[in-house]
Amino acid sequence: MTALDKTKEAELVARVKAGEEVACARMMTWAERGDPRFAVAYDAFHADLGRARRLGITGPPGAGKSTLVERLALHWRGLDRTVGIVAVDPTSPFTGGALLGDRVRMGELSLDKGVFIRSMATRGVFGGLARATDDIADVLDLNGRDMVVVETVGVGQSEVDVAKSSDLTLVVLHPGGGDTIQAMKAGLMEVADIYVVNKADRPGVDRLVQQLTDILDVRDIPLQDRPPILTTVATEGTGIVELAGQIDASLAEREADGRLAGRRGENLRRRIRRIVDGRLRQDVWELAGLSERLDQGTAGLESGTGASVSAYGLAEEILSDYRERRHGETQA
Amino acid sequence: MTALDKTKEAELVARVKAGEEVACARMMTWAERGDPRFAVAYDAFHADLGRARRLGITGPPGAGKSTLVERLALHWRGLDRTVGIVAVDPTSPFTGGALLGDRVRMGELSLDKGVFIRSMATRGVFGGLARATDDIADVLDLNGRDMVVVETVGVGQSEVDVAKSSDLTLVVLHPGGGDTIQAMKAGLMEVADIYVVNKADRPGVDRLVQQLTDILDVRDIPLQDRPPILTTVATEGTGIVELAGQIDASLAEREADGRLAGRRGENLRRRIRRIVDGRLRQDVWELAGLSERLDQGTAGLESGTGASVSAYGLAEEILSDYRERRHGETQA
Question: How many domains, in total, are found in chain A?
Fold first, then answer.
């Protein structure tokens, strides 16, 4: 039974590797749902990974990230490179899925077999957004995509983490999109390997570039690590060739001097930590009785008034229970 | 020794309860750092909690949240209510702390003993932002603050979660701040109990209110749960009295019909889950040897090419190790 299942997983791996889109989509669904079959499949293909170039693209809402990704994809297609795009859109509670919005504009690309686009919700993804996007990017790598782009629309901690989990991270800003202090607040500045000032036909572009330059001056970083600042007008395709050239150059440089390998190692370490943390979390709450224990305990704690056990106390009790139960199982 | 320590913690609890600001700040630092003394102190005071009204205020950058909070605080002071504000600002990597920015404007309030303001970084907070802000809000409750406001500047998943962990959540938007679709994407719409359209002296306010109304119409929610939409010009104090009145009315209504108690129960359940998850995560990586195991394992996995064990495989090995070690300790 297990052997048969593994054969099925190996079969899907082979189909993804052969470039099949349907197989690709199916394996991504496994990844999103935390389906155990993904881990089985992963064991069978992980040694084949590492060929694709992975870009993380992030920035505040309205910076024009999707249009920029679209333009980059068209450019790469012109160079005969295949492309995979993972677009992370938070779910709306009432559409029940990723909002289309920007994605609709990708129409031009969606007819091209050389471009695979996957929209993801940030909610309801099993075991965390970063874990799922890493896995999905791997599927695109296995699928033979030359360039894999993960675009996150948010500016929160977890969204920024996603963009960091790549070979190279682009931070896209635009003039008039609020002060750069907002981007600093969002933690965007520390993840940027390349700054893209998009909508550069609008007023304020010089000031924004100057602000970024000043901030970089203050940070006193080694010259090789200093993020270049490029300007684009994605809607008109201006600056895309230069940006794509900079991306290639930065990647080549980092590959040559070992920084790429180092970064991939770091990403991998963070990723395994996430997998372990996610599994443990799952383990506790799936262990029969502990969720019920929580419900009963909190019913007593209502509003925090007059209860005999505190939230921290109850958490400790649940943890002890977990360890004891696991202990019992190991002995059995 | 332990008894002595507990006495010290009880002493600090008493000082916080007596309204001492220095004691308050110290206990918040324990909470932020995940200091075990916080859990000890918590056991001693949790039964006293639940008196303060807790508001979560969130919205996209630039909506004017801080000014709005400042105005509300001034209004409440006029009614002789004491106020506690937790302002969540992501850390900049090179300032090494929370950026001041907006906070500077709070000058008027900072001289008033009736208002306690705590700025928090989203990074480097031990065990997650939501866990820490819940704890800090509790300290303000213990400190006797009538109104406790948690303001999050971000629009990411974890920041929205923070705003949800309250008695009532305000979502602040402003005309010209991008389409409401951006707010929907950020998951803001589902947490709103009250919508505030700030900067209502700017063009586009009618359109924004109409968009929100349309969205609420589509959602088909029960009338009692339908979030009211209020307009304000926080910089001029316009609409603040009405907003404060709506906040009081919504809270009173929810208290009377039991929704408040239900929500507090839910918040508590989520919170205990977070504590358990955080403790487990800490437990694994602090257990001697497992971090080293990860480092050794990933050194072999470099770039994912040609390795014999996959990331998922290594994660499983670390988990088994953890369980076995914990098992060994329980037996010892």
Answer: 3
